[in-house]
Amino acid sequence: MNSSSEIPVLVTAAPRVSLLSGARRKTIALAGLVVLAVGVTLVSLFPIYWMLVSAVRHPAVFFTPNPSLIPGPFTLEYFGRLFTATNFPRWYVNSFIVAVLATVITVFAASLMSYVLVRFPIPGLFFVLRLVLVGYMLPPMLLGIPLFAIFTSLGIDDTLLSLIISHISIGLPFGVWLLWGFFKTVPVEIEESALVDGATRLQALRHVLFPLAWPGMVTAGVFAFIVSWTDYTFALLLISSDANRTVPFGLATMMGAFEMRWGEILGGASLVAVPMLIVFAFISQYFIRGLTAGGVKG
Amino acid sequence: MILFAVTILVPAAMAVRLSLYKMSTFIDEPVFIGLGNFVTLAQQPRFWNAAWNNIVYTVACVLFQTVIGIGVALVLHNNFRGRNLVRGATVVPYIIPSVVVALTWRWMLQPQLGIVNAIFRAVGLPSIEWFSVGWAMPTVILVSVWAWMPFVALVFLAALQTVPDELYESAMIDGASAWQRFISITLPVLKPVVAIIILLRGIWMFNKFDQIWLLTGGGPLQMTENLPILAYVKTFQLNQVGEGTAVATLSLVIMLAGALVYFKMFRLEEA
Predict the structure, then answer these.
(1) What is the pLDDT of residues B90-118, one digit of tens each?
(2) Residue A176 has pLDDT above 70, yes or no
(3) Do both A109 and A70 map to the same domain?
(4) Which pLDDT value is given to residue A185?
(5) Residue B127 DSSP one-character state
(6) What are phi and psi of A74, to 5 degrees?
(7) Rounded to whole angstroms, how far apart are CA atoms A232 and B98?
(8) How far apart are CA B73 and CA A30, in angstroms?
């Protein structure tokens, strides 16, 4: 991704015949590039900046037709109310439990499944995998409505368990798909030589295959976590009681409950987004790999 | 032993999942009315409105995401100081949860107090009623392009970086202009990726629920109500489970038909 010998395409965009000298053109092209790059960055980051600034802005200057772009004067009172007047901490914990469990189970199941698919290619199994991937592209309600019906008949609607199960069912196909690609690249011979040396299949799996495939597993985990942590739709369908809400759903309900409580809402939104941004800074390489490998849903 | 168990578990898990899909059309079974729901829907202007909105939204989003995505990828493909920073910044909209995106934009686009209109006024532009009947659809498209264009740009960037630099160098020696190089080198490289991305983005934008729902709730006057929203409203708010499921099913049919036409038009091979 970072070959240092890349030719800057735009910068060297100099046709033979030109009114301007080559050097001058180059400067203009470079300036254009800088403007574009800065513009893209600004457009991408400004809404996040504005969310954070607004979340700590003092109520005296919060609702004004001409807000200042510079942060301040500061206050933490919205966060205070968020923690005392709403169930926000509970929602946060719920989200965390759901996301962690869904991620762990998804990665574990996806690893085993894709290993089996790679090493024991039973005819037809791959077709099933493809079908499952298609399932990933189903309209949300086509999946959500039957899931809701099933969970209701099982009596586990409005539980975190039902959310975990549905997040696994949307995260698993992509996980299997991704890991299948990773396992495929590990030569059978390496594993076989381990078997010849007297390792059991499980030992071979643990000591030979998983160490080679763990970047894939981290990538799959990152995506499973994002799918679960950011999910709003399934929480909306499955969860009815306030105590079982996850953060995205809980925040959205605040929209209706306190019509103009923008400070609290944006404070809560910051608390959902900021941890993700921090984590993202550390795992961006896995993230971009997964992204370009075919893409998580969005 | 464990492997044996897993080989059983795999098809079992698949079967469970597949049975989920069958369940969806199965919900209206209690009272079997055949295609009754579909006939009812076909007579509802609200259904056709939602289908139309769905198509407008999808086409506009995919178009802008792809075109702007290519542009941003080309910018990021250049070497400059801070490129990684810009690239990182570009991805930020994509990893922010939909709820945060929707709420933050609702705040920014507030007609009187929102920062966007404040900036517009400051530079002498008229303020806009972003969530009015006329503007609601462009607004949801705008926010969706903001949120998912980075994904497209990153995928294109990855594709661009597979092009050997020598190709560009030799083209430049042969006197090809930047535009000629873009047409004859960059575009052919991007073409298979663009084809796949348009398909994937098309499917996902077609199925979009949460973002639009949180921004407008389908309103005002159902101006932004698409098929997923209609399916939700019918199933969970209007107690028309059968019709709601029928909407979801029809949206799948429309989507598959669209994908098929797309395949025919571009003769996509396994890219």
Answers:
(1) 878 888 888 999 999 998 898 888 888 88
(2) yes
(3) no
(4) 73
(5) P
(6) -90, 155
(7) 8
(8) 16
Strand partners, A74: A57
The CATH superfamily holding the domain B36-266 is MetI-like (1.10.3720.10)
Query: Is A9 in contact with B251 (Cβ distance < 8 A)?
Result: no
Domain extent listing, chain B: 36-266
Q: What is the mean pLDDT of residues A194-211?
A: 76
d(CA B133, nearest CA chain A) in Å: 20
User: Is B204 within 8 Å of A297 when comparing Cβ atoms?
Assistant: yes
Tell whether A208 and A276 lie within a shared domain.
yes
Give the whole-angstrom CA distance, residue B210 versus residue B231. Answer: 13
3-state secondary structure (DSSP) of residue A74 = strand
Residues A46 and A151 in one domain: no
Residue whose pair of structure tokens reads 């077709």 in the numeric block = A127
Asked if A150 and A224 sit in the same domain, the reply is yes
- The rounded distance, in Å, linking the Cα atoms of A126 and A151 is 28
- The DSSP 8-state label assigned to residue B126 in this structure reads P
Residues of chain B in contact with residue A271, where contact means CB-CB under 8 angstroms, are: none
Contact A47 B169 (CB under 8 A): no
Instruction: Tell whether A58 and A132 lie within a shared domain.
Output: no
Of A44, A75, A106, which residue is a domain's last?
Answer: A75
How many domains does one find in chain A? 2
Interface of A with B in 52-81 (CB under 8 A): 54, 63-67, 69
Q: Is residue A190 part of a domain?
A: yes
What is the CB-side half-sphere exposure of residue B60 using CA atoms within 13 A? 16
Residues of chain B with Cβ-Cβ distance to A109 below 8 Å are: 13
Closest CA to A91 of A223, A226, A271, A237: A271
Residues A118 and A231 in one domain: yes
B104-155, pLDDT tens digit by residue? 999 889 888 888 888 888 888 888 888 888 899 999 999 999 998 888 888 8
Taking CA atoms, A46 is separated from A52, A54, B44, B192, in Å, by 10, 12, 42, 33
Q: Return the structure tokens found at A194.
A: 């381990």
- Of A30, A58, A75, which closes a domain? A75
Q: Looking at the structure, tell me whether residues A154 and A238 fall in a common domain.
A: yes
Q: Is residue A119 part of a domain?
A: yes
Distance between alpha carbon B43 and the CA centroid of its chain, in Å?
28
Question: What average pLDDT does chain B have?
Answer: 79
Chain A to chain B Cβ contacts (< 8 Å): 272
3 state SS of B260: helix
**Does A14 map to a domain?**
no
Q: Which residues of A touch B70 (CB under 8 A)?
A: none
**Residue A58 lies in domain:** 22-75
Question: Residue A3: inside a domain, yes or no?
Answer: no
A8 to chain B: which residues are within 8 Å by CB?
77-80
- A236 and A94 in a single domain? The answer is yes
| Confidence at A223, pLDDT banded by 50, 70, 90 | confident
Q: Which residues 171-190 of A have a C-beta within 8 angstroms of B?
A: none
Instruction: Render pLDDT for B50-102 as a digit per residue (tens, 0 to 9).
Output: 999 999 999 999 999 999 998 888 888 877 777 777 877 887 888 888 899 99
Read off the pTM: 0.81
